[in-house]
Amino acid sequence: MRLAVKRHISFILVCLFFFNTSLLFAQRNVRFAAQTSSIERKIDSLLAKMTLAEKLGQLQQLDGEASGKYRPEHLELARNGLLGSTLNVRGAEQSNELQKIAVEQSRLKIPMLFAFDVIHGYRTMFPIPLGESASWDLASIEKSAHIAATEARSAGVHWTFAPMVDIARDPRWGRIAEGAGEDTFLGSQIAFARVRGFQGTDFSQSDRVMACAKHFAAYGAAEAGRDYNTTDMSERTLREIYFPPFKAAVDAGVGSFMTSFNSISGVPSTANPFLWKQILRDEWKSDALVVTDYTAVMELMKHGVALDEADAARLALNAGIDIEMVSRFVNKHGEQLVQNKKLSMATIDNAVREVLRTKFKLGLFEKPYADANRERAMLLNAEHRKFARQSANESFVLLKNERETLPIKKSIKEIAVVGFLAGDQRNMNGNWAGDGREQDAVTVFEGVKNKLGNSAKVKFASGCDAKCEDASGFDEAVKLAQNSDFTILTVGEDIDMSAEASSRTDIGLPGKQLELVKRIHQTGKSYAVVLMNGRPLTINWLAENSPAILETWFAGTEAGNAIADTLFGDANPSGKLPITFPRSVGQIPIYYNALPTGRPFEAENKYTSKYLDSPNTPLYPFGYGLSYTTFKVSNLQLSQSKISKTGELKVSVDVENTGKRAGAEVVQVYVRDFVASLSRPVKELKAFQRVSLKAGEKRKIELVLKAKDLGFYNTANQYVVEAGEFGLTVGTSSNDDGLKDTFTIVK
Ligand code: GLC
Fold first, then answer.
1. Which of 551, 569, 587 is the last residue of a domain?
2. What integer pLDDT is reported at residue 22 of this predicted model?
3. Looking at the 3D structure of the chain, how many domains does it have?
4. In terms of residue numbers, what domain contains 699?
5. Of 90, 283, 366, 560, which has fewest CB within 10 angstroms of its CB?
6. Inter-residue contact 355 to 39 (CB < 8 Å)
7. pLDDT at residue 61 greater than cutoff 70
8. Residue 605 belongs to some domain of the structure
């Protein structure tokens, strides 16, 4: 009897729990719905009062000075309610000055929106996005975006033009530095993490900003790797390779999108209703605010699709964009377009609605001003600096380490730091360095001195500048290396050789840098190469001859301290390449998840897909990276050998640190759909897990594969999951033979 009563009571308690929870959810949803509808009501009432000029003003974004100062004309425009947003205006004091005019002196007191390119940090600089992506550490990537948002919001910035989520397979394209590399799955995971880091789940908070998924779409496929160039591809490829990171951003709640400069199969993105109406609004149900890229409306005339300025404005607004960045055609011609019935008031109202909704969601009507005291407390504080150092260490990829050249023993007495980049603060921060200040950055030279203190003599010789056209400094650098026990040789690119408008046809070491490396090598003294670069480089000679190579990208404010941590073993490199390093430009595009072709490579068969003058394999593959310790992955087990089209498969392996020091490994799961209605890639990354282990520690890890993630777009552009047998490889690089098994998706 007692047991029955107990059961009855516990059943009632469980029901009460679920009732309460669902009540809480219902209340939250009601509250959310109420809040949304109250915002909509406020928008309606504002719209009803706005003149056409004021509406068009909300669709205008102008740029402030590079210093963050607003321009004199902004004051008058703000006073008349004719400037909805700016980019670059930043700093609590400066942004408040302009905001006060808009909020306190304009007729309708609509606050302004301040945007800025906070790409990999605001004042505390983190590794460039391609470098940070090499960590495969989603939690760390989210945290660095959160820190960037905290600093930016304290400085009066509400909106960052990040993350850049363009998939890129062509390292000639300089903007490959700004994204997450070549892989759609990794890029989608990172896009989600970055948006969540910037926005959280409510970007009205004082430590959040609105994010911007850019550049929609396929900008990374610029023909010949030449920036701003055209792209041409099937809708299927768009949907399968280039769209998913943007969809991941939508799933993370991204508040805005930015158009891309390129045209897609002849249609410029900035006037492309397929992107903005069919995909973003109808299919993805996103109400993200859409801003053009810089003067992209004006560029519709150069693309040859707009007859004149008014035509360009009409095409852009009718395609579904909301804000025009920097060019002023919408403002200048909007009224005339409405009068000539080439543009409906409804279209303008929809765009204005998006802008006003964003300002309400950011809380700008309630809290339009930044707090200078908070700004002083947030910018480059010790906690942020410390995390920047950790983030930098995690971004480094150990490409080679023969005879345990690294880590360097701290007992060393004479150490040479050679190479211009090792002593240059500007290059440490990387490109798109936000409000980062050169004087805050720690160089490699300083980092090594900080590490060794007075225990060793640390000397520096630049050898040459980054362009390295003048070898007159080589002798001094070689002499220093000859008189030292070890040389840290830093080579690579200047930050101006990657990022926007920085495509290269030759992606080797610039100028005579390779000659400098060979001269240092010829001394016979021990050395390690530290690479600083914004793209893969064809460093074939180094890969063949240098004893150790550490890829450090551009690692941010704490670059020098982090590089010293890793070089001297206080950190153990764990990065994995998010992008393939080709042997030569002739191999481009080269990426790991290629299709098999009808004549896949056979070494002994001339008549298969190959080159006469190069292997097909890359210099370093996607997912590759070494460690100072060793790991063993074993005991692959699948939860089942068959799954339904809506099922999932659990993949478990044991990971053991078989070396003498703690470290982290990234276990990667690649699948292959052997036979389908379309040819499928030889392998595709579909799950990964970063695992940190002490020396000797062994751990079982479990990864989940969902059948729904193993589909593709068919020739009718529908996403399908097809039954059939799949191969599965679990390893620590895309070229790792790893542990293999198969499973089947059943009808
Ligand atoms: C630039 C870039 C874009 C950036 C914008 C504002 O041209 O293409 O990524 O956000 O202009 O600076």
1. 587
2. 56
3. 4
4. 631-745
5. 366
6. no
7. yes
8. no
pLDDT tens track for 68-113: 999 999 999 999 999 999 999 999 999 999 999 999 999 999 999 9
| Separation of CA 347 and ligand 1 centre (Å) | 25
Indicate if 229 and 122 belong to the same structural domain.
Answer: yes
Catalogue the long-range contacts made by 100-109 (C-beta closer than 8 Å, 24 or more residues apart): 100/369, 101/75, 102/78, 102/368, 103/368, 105/78, 105/79, 106/78, 106/79, 106/80, 106/81, 107/54, 107/80, 107/81, 108/46, 108/49, 108/50, 108/54, 108/81
- Classify each residue of 621-646 as buried b or exposed e, where b means 16 or more C-beta atoms within 10 Å of its C-beta: bbbbbbbbbebebeebebeeeebeee
Residues 367 and 399 in one domain: no
pTM flag (> 0.85): yes
- SS3 of 519, please? helix
CB distance 493 to 508 below 8 Å: no
Query: Which amino acid type is present at position 200?
Result: G
The verdict on 278 and 223 lying in the same domain is: yes
Closest residue by CA, ligand 1 atom 7: 294
Length of the chain measured in residues: 747
From the CB of residue 545, how many other CB atoms can be counted at a distance below 10 Å? 12
Residue 67 lies in a domain: no
Q: Tell me: do 345 and 427 sit in the same domain.
A: no
What CATH number does the domain containing 153 carry?
3.20.20.300
CA distance linking residue 175 with residue 168, whole number of Å: 8
Residue 572 one-letter amino acid: N
Each residue's pLDDT tens digit, 607-645: 999 999 999 999 999 999 999 999 999 999 999 999 999
Reported as a pLDDT band with limits 50, 70 and 90, residue 10 is low
463: Cβ contacts below 8 Å, ≥ 6 apart: 418, 419, 420, 473, 474, 476, 477, 516
Asked whether residue 108 is assigned to any structural domain, the reply reads no
Ligand 1 atom 3, closest CA: 293
- Distances from the Cα of 280 to the Cαs of 81, 212, 684, in angstroms? 29, 13, 26
Residues 6+ apart with CB under 8 A from 244: 184, 185, 187, 188
**Single-letter code of the amino acid located at 388:** A
Q: Does residue 3 form part of some domain?
A: no
Nearest to 333 by CA among 316, 346, 358: 316
Catalytic annotation on 282?
Answer: no
Q: Which of 170, 293, 322, 565 is catalytic?
A: 293
Q: Are residues 730 and 582 in the same domain?
A: no
Residue that finishes a domain, picked among 309, 344, 375: 375
- C-alpha to C-alpha distance for 701 and 633, rounded to whole angstroms: 10
Q: How close is the Cα of 224 to the center of ligand 1, in Å?
A: 21
CB of 293 shorter than 6 A to ligand 1: yes
Any idea what the CATH number is for the domain that residue 652 is in? 2.60.40.10
Residues 308 and 369 in one domain: yes
